[in-house]
Write a structure and sequence with these properties.
mainly alpha, Four Helix Bundle (Hemerythrin (Met), subunit A), two-stranded antiparallel ribbon, 12 helices, elongated
């Protein structure tokens, strides 16, 4: 009987959480807005206080709302925190997860680059040119190259104007930086001039507004990266450096 009541409450709290999420999706509630007080949620949905609290807790765990002691619960802006936790857990759970994440990144960034070629703004063009120049200047400075390389890829993703691609990229950013760092350190695996020229070609294709060429170049780039990641995954001691 107790188990049945708990099950019913969880089902109801899930329904309440879904309904509150709909308020956010349809614009009734926006980022920064306060949710109705607990008593109002209880009244609107005709549920108990524990059910209402469980619904809010569920939304909080999902990163949809922010709960603070003694303050109103507010709607969070779109963020990647839940994705970051998920991808970190995936890599810790099975080693091949890192390779899978880079394959995911290939799909994301290949499409993001093609979209960027269609949607990039004049200001973003100037930024991409600047980053390409910084990559050339930092070719033999590992710290400068790694920092700029991440900025370069992030700039392309932002230029795609696709919010979900951007949030997913942010969610795997920890792993992006790790792979960049380890690959850069493997001198036997790295061909600096080739890698630089590939990045420059990417920038040129995006600025020229050529989605097909941009897509092909980004796919080529990950064809260069993935064998390095396979080597990392096969070496458990190297993979353990992440954790």
């Amino acid at each position: 009987m107790v188990a049945a009541r708990i099950s019913d409450r969880r089902r109801l709290s899930s329904i309440v959480a879904q309904e509150i999420t709909k308020w956010i999706i349809n614009g009734t509630l926006k980022a920064g807005d306060a949710l109705p007080p607990e008593a109002e949620i209880v009244r609107q949905f005709n549920v108990s206080k524990p059910t209402a609290r469980e619904a809010i807790d569920h939304l909080s765990v999902m990163g949809i709302v922010k709960v603070q002691q003694g303050k109103q619960t507010t709607v969070n802006p779109l963020n990647s925190l839940v994705l970051e936790d998920f991808f970190r857990y995936a890599v810790q759970t099975y080693p091949e997860g890192l390779y899978d994440i880079v394959e995911l990144r290939r799909g994301l960034e290949t499409e993001a680059a093609a979209l960027a070629a269609e949607r990039i703004t004049d200001d973003e063009v100037q930024l991409l040119k600047s980053l390409a120049e910084r990559l050339r200047a930092g070719l033999h400075s590992p710290a400068e190259w790694l920092s700029t390389d991440y900025e370069f890829h992030a700039a392309i993703v932002r230029a795609s104007k696709n919010k979900l691609i951007l949030q997913t990229f942010n969610g795997i950013s920890e792993h992006v930086r790790y792979v960049q760092r380890v690959c850069h350190m493997q001198r036997d695996m790295r061909v600096p001039d080739y890698n630089l020229r590939l990045h420059e070609k990417l920038a040129e294709a995006i600025i020229a507004g050529d989605p097909a060429r941009t897509r092909a170049l980004m796919f080529e780039h990950f064809g260069y990266v993935l064998p390095f990641v396979a080597a990392i995954v096969s070496d458990k001691s190297r993979l353990s450096e992440m954790f």
